[in-house]
User: Which sequence fits this backbone?
């Protein structure tokens, strides 16, 4: 029930080093970090990043109706969100996307924490979080470029279930629309996807006028 979709693909992601340091509380403007410590943390980051297997997929679903409370989608689906309805009032399609770094790093982070290596676990967790976000950023950039060639504009701002008034129950839409099982993603009863460090997001798509 999608108008356009992409196969699951590996994402050519680089270690988001600056964002990882920032997430750990280090800033070149506020934190003095000697070179030896910087290199030690960087080695741990690289060790963690080597366990990441960033993959993603996305698709477009036609918008068939709208009101102030949400959007109706092809296939009898609906997004119940006044925020989404207001933000993407002119969208002809909604872009659904998912990205994950895979299960290896989250499993190792748990193992490091269980063994008492909390420093490695904290660094690994930061790398996992930032890498998942960076994977979604890259997926969105690639999708935007491809859609632009088709005369379509993907909104820069995206929303993820759990933010604003977009409830976690909308995760089931991603499960229905995208090949998440093939990506190794499953929906937990909490409304979050496993493995940890998996991201879902949606955004509006309009035709480029002129």
Assistant:
């Amino acid at each position: 029930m999608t108008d356009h979709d992409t196969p699951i693909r590996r994402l050519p992601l680089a270690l988001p080093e600056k964002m990882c340091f920032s997430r750990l509380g280090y800033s070149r403007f506020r934190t003095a970090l000697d070179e030896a410590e910087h290199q030690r943390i960087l080695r741990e980051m690289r060790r963690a990043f080597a366990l990441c297997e960033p993959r993603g997929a996305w698709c477009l679903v036609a918008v068939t109706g709208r009101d102030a409370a949400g959007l109706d989608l092809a296939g009898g689906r609906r997004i119940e969100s006044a925020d989404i309805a207001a933000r993407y009032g002119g969208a002809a399609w909604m872009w659904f996307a998912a990205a994950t770094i895979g299960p290896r790093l989250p499993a190792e982070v748990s193992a490091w924490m269980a063994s008492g290596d909390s420093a490695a676990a904290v660094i690994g967790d930061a790398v996992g979080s930032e890498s998942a976000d960076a994977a979604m950023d890259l997926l969105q950039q690639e999708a935007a470029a491809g859609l632009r060639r088709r005369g379509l504009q993907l909104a820069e701002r995206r929303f993820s279930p759990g933010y604003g008034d977009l409830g976690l129950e909308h995760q089931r839409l991603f499960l229905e629309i995208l090949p998440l099982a093939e990506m190794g993603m499953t929906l937990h009863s909490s409304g979050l996807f496993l493995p940890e460090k998996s991201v879902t997001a949606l955004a509006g798509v309009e035709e480029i006028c002129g």
Remarks:
- The longest strand covers residues 55-67.
- The mean pLDDT is 91.
- The two ends are 29 Å apart (CA to CA).
- Helices lie at 17-23, 35-49, 82-87, 104-114, 118-149, 171-177.
